Amino acid sequence: MKLGNLDLGNRLIVAPMADVSDAPFRKIAKKYGAGLTFTPMVSAKGIIDNEFHALRILAFARDEKPIGVQLLGNNPEYLAGAVHELQRYKPDVIDINCGCPVEKVTKHNLGAQLLDDPIHMGKLIEAMVDAAGDIPISVKLRLGKSDGKINILETAKVAEESGAAAIIVHARTRNTKYKDDPNWDWLLKVKEQVKIPVIGNGSLFTPKDIKEMIERTKVDGVMIARGALGNPFIFNRYRELVENGSDSGEPSIEEIEEVAIMHSRLIAKEYPEAVAVIKARKNIIWYFKHLDGIHKFASTIMRTKNIEGEIKMIHEHVEKLKQNFYPKDDRELINQKFKERVLFWLNE
Ligand SMILES: Cc1cc2nc3c(=O)[nH]c(=O)nc-3n(C[C@H](O)[C@H](O)[C@H](O)COP(=O)(O)O)c2cc1C
User: Fold this and answer.
1) Please, which of 38, 84, 127, 316 could form a disulfide with 76 given CB 3.0 to 4.6 Å?
2) How much distance in Å is there from the Cα of 15 to the middle of ligand 1?
3) Which positions of the chain have pLDDT values less than 70?
């Protein structure tokens, strides 16, 4: 799939995810076959103001390329300034977030709030495109504000006319919760509406889901968020499904163990230990979420104080799994809980 002049080699894109799609996460996804990864959303103003937090989020290593940086902004000057600043880092794509429904974002007229004013949204995209030189600009959209206010055909067209190289469509409205299914039918309508590449997003959890979305909606590429948590295997499995006609299925427990440890060590390299322990925890739990004993394992790993302790816990947990130590979990219930709230083991 091509974004501007950039050829991704495949159609699989890792979604921007706040507090999740950091360098360790992206490196593992890439190793397992993702064609493009994204940083979490980063404030355009934060970049201009040289805020440490913003610069930390957008930092990436050269061997992570191709990579996209996602910006959050609502002011054409700030967005253009941030894009100009980003030229130094040479990301392969720069995206504008027009989909985040979280109140602390929308109340500042950012994220999904931009969907309410397509004309202003168009001005923001134009400002970014003008500042970007040959870096392609993508726009991450939702269907609209609510079921009664779906305006994706309009926003998609505005994005195209404003110079965007691609659009990413999360097939939910701003008001649709994760527990409700996305409406993929809109993706097909969007494909008929614009000529630029359309990337479909929403509830892709298995290689079969990816294949089905591409076949049903004709999207050029797919973006995966929750389906990649503790599951970089989804990228390779999709490639195998396409190449061999069959899915190799869930990885072995030894492979999960190996990748969970590799991921934890990358996190340990990236952050000070106190931060790394917390970041590794949630990723480790995600790797084992579909296996028995997950709640027991989650509460044990919560108590560990360092990465080596966490790795020891992984080994012990895997041994217990091999010995069928745990009673059978209600798989469907856990899966449902995870889809609704990715930190499914925490009390609300
Ligand atoms: C933990 C988490 C963080 C997210 N952060 C962002 C973000 O920074 N920017 C963004 O555009 N979307 C963000 N999203 C939304 C995803 O990119 C994606 O659009 C959404 O989860 C639907 O895809 P999925 O069904 O594959 O999860 C986030 C989602 C999750 C689960």
Assistant:
1) 127
2) 6
3) 348
DSSP string, 294-337: HHHHHHHHTT--SHHHHHHHHHHHHHHHHTT-SPPP-HHHHHHH
| Ligand 1 first shell, C-beta below 6 A | 15-18, 20, 40-41, 70, 97, 99-100, 140, 170, 201-204, 224-227, 342
Are residues 232 and 259 in contact, defined by beta-carbon separation less than 8 angstroms?
yes
> Which CATH number, 3.40.50.300, 3.30.360.10, 3.40.50.2000, 3.20.20.70, labels domain 2-244?
3.20.20.70
DSSP 136-157: -EEEEEESBSSGGGB-HHHHHH
User: What residues are labeled active site?
Assistant: 100
Print burial letters for 34-54: b (CB count within 10 Å at least 16), e (below 16).
bbbbbbbbbbbbbbbeeeeeb
Give me the chain's average pLDDT, please.
97
Percent of the chain with pLDDT over 90: 97
